[in-house]
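Deviation from plan, reported transparently: magnesium ion complex.
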Amino acid sequence: MITKIFSTTEDDLREAGRILKNGGLVAFPTETVYGLGADALNPEAAKKVYLAKGRPSDNPMIVHIQERGEIYSLTDTVSDDVKVLMESFWPGPLTIIVKAKDIIPRVTTGGLSTVAVRMPSSEIARKVIRYSGCPIAAPSANLSGKPSPTKGSHCVDDMNGRIDGIILGPDCEVGIESTVIDMTGDSPEILRPGIITREEISLALNKEVKYDRALFEKPGEDFSPKAPGMKYKHYAPKAEMILFKGEKDKVRQAISLREKEETEKGKKVSVILFDDNRTAAHDLFMKLRQCDLDGTDLILCEALTEEGLGFSVMNRMLKSASYNVVEI
Ligand code: AMP
Ligand code: MG
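Because the crystal trials were delayed, the predicted structure below was used instead.
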């Protein structure tokens, strides 16, 4: 298959929208990571997303809309709390899980009776959705298991020849995927942490917001997160990766020492250090992909403090490193 490369001109976005409307697949930028879009209401199109990504079919996709009101075409149950979340955080990186209407094919929801909905703040993403005229199912536009794409070139690396089009837009502002919150239970529960934190959501709803217990567990036999996607191998660079956790000065010393030792053994070592959480979120996937391109054998990465956004980025770092942590 020849993948058409699009820019962000109106003509190109219109053509990308037409491809989506006709059941094709197009990768496009959002503020979180690049998404791989398909018509969410067309089961054949949705099926192709799983094939292109090599994604397990029980891993549901987020359905993207371009106006708040479009949520009513996907669900009959929009509670007052869901309305508050839509008003407070949309457009933006919050995905809300609600009961699904029957018109949504089960292939889109990974067989579940619920659906994940998000209205992105990226103008480009919203225009593509508008031009397509349909809600757009869009998981991250990477091959399953690889770090999510935060640049157009990452989509080209993973998806060229596998999908109909790629829109080369700006680098993603946030850099990690949206916060996923389940609003179908007795109380709101975060299934995937993101840049919108539990504290912010709790403040908006004026109630306690829980984390899915699985966020604190290491995947093993009893591991069953409520977001099916959280159980799969994720964000893995080709190199072995070690996270160093502890007091900053000591961690940096330990990393330098280890870098020296491993380099002397002939290994190509990359060190990843971040000075703040925002930059960590923005750069993590890009740096992991750069390590793949550089042929790195070993990645030594400083852990973040697991509070607020630091908790969300650490959720990805731990998976990238296959929970390989050295406590200093
Ligand atoms: P991605 O599309 O790669 O950003 O991943 C979407 C995440 O949202 C995955 O972890 C999914 O398992 C999760 N998700 C999507 N829809 C649902 C749903 N209906 N219930 C629970 N989790 C969901
Ligand atoms: Mg993904």
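Residues 139-140, 148 surround magnesium ion (ligand 2) (CB under 6 Å). We consider this an acceptable substitute for the interim report.
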